[in-house]
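Subgroup meeting minutes
Present: P.N., E.W., G.H.
Scribe: E.W.

1. P.N. recapped why we're keeping a running log of single-chain structure predictions: easier to compare across weeks, and new members can see raw inputs and outputs side by side.
2. G.H. added today's entry (112 aa).
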Amino acid sequence: MEKQESSAAAISAFVDLGADLAQAGVVMGKMFGASSLMLNKKALACLNGDKVVFKLGRDTPEHARALALPGAVLFDPSGLKRPFKDWVEVPFSSHADWPAFAEAALQFVAGE
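Output recorded in log:
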């Protein structure tokens, strides 16, 4: 995955997500070399440049809602048109929605 630099605002918003979910057992970790939110060693979100990638589950309403946002796409870490179908990359322009998606990702990963 090509490493994209994150702005201070995106990093701050991402750290806040982790703090909000800490009581649920979420900790900071690494996935694809990026800062990630982890539950029981499973990633539920990671910071990729000024975007956060959330594991929402391909057939969930949250997945559809995330993909409907401007600039949101399925996460394709290889860049080879083989996206991870459960993962949606949500741009910083929609960071107000990040906490709701983080909560949905937490529920999805906890139920796996």
